[in-house]
Amino acid sequence: MRIHLVSQDNLADSPFDIQISGLEANVTYLVRMTLVDYYNINAPMDLEATVPWQSQGIYTADELGQISVNKTYCQTGSYQGQVEMGLFFNSKPTENKRMSLQSNLSDIPLRDSFEIQVELLKNEEALEKARFKRYYQTPQIRHEELHFSKAQARLFYPERAKNLPAIIVLSGSDGRIEKAQNIAQILASRGFVTMAVAYFGLEGLPKDLDRIDLDSIEKALSYLACLPQVDGERIGIYGRSKGAELALLAVSFFPELKCLVVNSPSCAVLEGMKGYRNSGHSSWTYRGKELPYTKFSFKDFIMSKLLRRPQIHYQTDSYIPVEKIQGHLFLIGAEKDEIWPTYESIEKIEERWKRRGTSAYKLKKLILKSSGHMLTLAYQPNSRYKKLAWKGVLADSVKSWQATVEFFKRYL
C-alpha cells in the first residue's frame, strides 16, 4: 500500500490529490485527514494553535485497487460527492480551545507551514499512514520585522530578490497582523515582495479602528520604494473589508501605488469602531484631519435586520475619490455580502471610475454568487456559512484568489 500526495507545488493555495494504491479492488476504506499546526485565516483568531483539524470520508477502491480522494466518489463522512479538495475543505477543528493573543509583534508566530497526516483504515483497523508538508511561506522566503511611527509590519521577499514588484497587504476590522501576514506569505511565495501591515490592535499601535492615520501606508510605501529587492515603479496594495476601504483611500491619495486589489470593499469612508461600538469619529485621518465619513445609522441597522440584507445610506462627502486613482483596479465581492453592501459599493466605485478622463488604467470586477464577506485564500476550510452550499463557497474562494494573483502578475 502507498499513500501519495500529487500537486503542482507545495503551496497552501494550490490544489492537491491524495492517491492511494495497492488496495483490494472494490473494497471500501476510510480515509482520515488531520491538519497539524494549521493556521486557518477563516477561523476565529484566538483558536488555539495546537488544535488539530480533521475530516474523513468513505471511498471504494476501483478495479485497479486505487483511490483518488479528488476523483473517487466520497460516499459519506465529512462530505459527500466527487469534489476537488472536498476532503481538505471540509476539515474542522477537533475542539474549540481558545488562547490569549500576543500583543507584541515579535511574539506573534509566523505560522508559515502545516502538516497533513493521512490515515487509511478498513473496518476500524489502521492500515497505512503518511505525512506531507504544505507552505504559506516557503523556506526560500526571508522575512523582517518593521516598526514605523504609526504602523508595524512584516516584510517577506524571495532570497536573492532584486527589482521585484511589491504588494502592501492589509487585513480588516480584526486588526493585528495574522491575517495580513497569511496573505502576504503566499503572495511572496508566488514571487512578489510583500509587506503585511498592522495598523491597530498591537502594542504600540492604536487599540481600536478609530482615526487611523494614512501615514501608516505612506511610510510603508516609502520604505518599499527604497529597497533593492523592489522595483519602486511597481508597488501595489491588497486590502480586505476595512483593509479594502483603507487601500482604496491610500491609492486615491498616493499615486505611487500602481495596482490595487480590493476584496469586499466599501465605496465610502465609514465611522470608526471602539470594540463593537461606533466611535463617533472617522475610521481614518490624514495629516491631522479626520476624513469625512458616513455615521452609523440606527435606521439602517433596523432595516438591515428586517430585510436581511445590509443597508447603508452614504453621506455624499464620504465617498472615496476613486476617480483620482492612477493605477489598475480589481474589485472583488459577493453579491450577497452579509456584513455590508459590497455589491452596491462596487457599482458605485465603477460609476465614479467612469468619470475619469483617461483610459490608461484597467478596471476589472468579479462578483461572486455563492459566498459572502469572508473571501480569502483558495481552498481553505470555511464553515462560516452554514446556510450556503459548501461547494459554492469553495469554488468562489478558488476563483477570487486565483484572479487576485493573476491580476497582480499581469498589471504590477
From TrEMBL:
Keyword set includes DNA damage: no
Molecular function per GO: fatty acyl-CoA hydrolase activity
InterPro entries: AB_hydrolase_fold (IPR029058), Acyl-CoA_thioEstase_long-chain (IPR016662), BAAT_C (IPR014940), Thio_Ohase/aa_AcTrfase (IPR006862), Thio_Ohase/BAAT_N (IPR042490)
Keywords (A to Z) from UniProt: Hydrolase
Gene3D superfamilies per record: Acyl-CoA thioester hydrolase/BAAT N-terminal domain (2.60.40.2240), alpha/beta hydrolase (3.40.50.1820)
Keyword Hydrolase (UniProt): yes
Active site: residue positions: 241 (charge relay system), 337 (charge relay system), 373 (charge relay system)
Highest taxon, organism lineage: Bacteria
Biological process according to GO: acyl-CoA metabolic process; fatty acid metabolic process
Residue ranges of domain BAAT/Acyl-CoA thioester hydrolase C-terminal in the record: 212-412
Extent of the signal sequence: none
Domain Acyl-CoA thioester hydrolase/bile acid-CoA amino acid N-acetyltransferase: 13-146
Family stated for the protein in its record: Belongs to the C/M/P thioester hydrolase family.
Protein name stated in the entry: BAAT/acyl-CoA thioester hydrolase protein
Taxonomic source organism: Streptococcus sobrinus W1703
